[in-house]
Amino acid sequence: MSKRHWCYGVFICIAGGAAVLVLAIAIGVGVYIHQFCGTQTSNSRSALQIFQDEFKRLQEDFPEQSQNLWLRSGKMMTNHLNKSHPDEPATIILTAAQDAKHTLLCLASGLAQTYAFALNSSWLVIHGPSQAKYDDSTAKLNIDEKLSSGFESRHRAAVLNHLETLPPGSLLILYKYCDHENAAYKKVALVFTILLEDSSLEPDTPLPELEEKVRDFLWKQFIHSGTSRSHQEMDSDKLGGVWSRISHLVLPVFPVERIEAGNCPFDLE
Ligand SMILES: *[C@@H]1O[C@H](CO)[C@@H](O)[C@H](O)[C@H]1NC(C)=O
Ligand SMILES: *[C@@H]1O[C@H](CO)[C@@H](O)[C@H](O)[C@H]1NC(C)=O
Questions:
Q1: Which of 34, 128, 140, 141 fits a 20 to 30 Å CA distance from 64?
Q2: What are the pLDDT digits (tens) for 105-123?
Q3: Any idea what DSSP says for residue 164?
Q4: Which of 93, 256, 49, 61 has its CA nearest to residue 189?
Q5: Which residue's CA lies nearest to atom 8 of ligand 1?
Q6: Taking 70 as the threshold, does the pLDDT of residue 32 lie above it?
Q7: Which residue's alpha carbon is at the smallest distance from atom 10 of ligand 1?
Q8: Do residues 243 and 186 lie in contact, with contact meaning Cβ atoms separated by under 8 Å?
Q9: Residue bearing the CA closest to ligand 1, atom 1
Q10: Considering the domain boundaries, does residue 15 fall inside one?
């Protein structure tokens, strides 16, 4: 071999080696990108999948509910979880008559837990009656602190139990959390419960009628009750503003005997 040929040989070897190296790096990067992106999609798919599986299980814990309850709450939460950047929180009002008092909180907790579980997170409950002894602004501050510290940490869902028992003016904090565009936290679910004074609910009450019933009840509680509770903070216009932000979906809860007897499968604290 002449010196020149030898030089060509070495050159080809080096060039070939470099080409193989570049190819190997390209393949490695490709595999990495593929795996990384693949994991991303399978993660977001699984949050929905987790929700749908858990939601089926939830329905088994609460027999004898209306079809509307499961269809509509399921759809609202599925759509919400399916958006990477929802423009408002998922907001649901559950209502019941006195005969379903325990089932109401239990089911609200179940919904909150199911939503939170799909996002590998936790949920919290704020009990209206625990705030009833405070004045408007103190109760408002308490609710604000609980929700924001919850959502800033591991919580993605909250139950506000017995909305009807809150000091009227404290409801104004819901402007901050439930506004259609400016809600402080959007990838969260808020479940409100409202316990009506009726002893039981007609199973076939149409939803618009139920919504009107709940609305009238809140107005009676907060605007027309004529009790000594401070009302200077709340009037019909402001309550209308709160109502329009929280009343996307008003759904009935019916009693489950086992749960009314005190056996709720969810932790209520
Ligand atoms: C989730 O969103 C995608 C695209 O926006 C849509 O094709 C799909 O049907 C949605 N899935 C569910 C379960 O709603
Ligand atoms: C779920 O959350 C916990 C605690 O925040 C974390 O350690 C864990 O990695 C998360 N799991 C998934 C699948 O994201």
A1: 128
A2: 999 999 999 999 999 999 9
A3: G
A4: 93
A5: 82
A6: no
A7: 82
A8: no
A9: 82
A10: no
Burial class (CB in 10 A: 0-12, 13-18, 19+), 109: buried
The tens digit of pLDDT for each residue in 81-110 reads 999 999 999 999 999 999 999 999 999 999
Give per-residue burial for 35-67: e unless 16+ CB within 10 Å, then b.
eeeeeeeeeeeebeebbeebbeebeeebeebbe
Distance CA 226, CA 22 (A): 81
Domain limits for position 201: 40-260
Compute the radius of gyration of the chain from its Cα atoms. Answer: 27
Whether residue 7 lies inside any domain: the answer is: no
- The CATH number given to whatever domain includes residue 193 is 3.40.50.12190
Residues 6+ away with beta carbon under 8 Å from 121: 154, 155, 156, 157
Measured distance CA(130)–CA(30) in Å, rounded:
56
Stretch (H or E) spanning 120 = none
- The residues, any chain, with a CB within 8 Å of residue 118's CB and separated by 6 or more, are 47, 48, 50, 51, 54, 81
Structurally, the chain folds into a number of domains equal to 1
- Distance between Cα 78 and ligand 1 center (Å): 9
Find the 222 Cα to ligand 2 centroid distance in Å: 42
Kindly tell me if the per-residue pLDDT of 33 is higher than 80.
Answer: no
Residue to mutate, 41, 55, 82, 84, ligand 1, most ligand atoms under 8 Å from C-beta? 82
Instruction: Report if residue 250 sits inside a domain.
Output: yes
Note the pLDDT of residue 269.
63
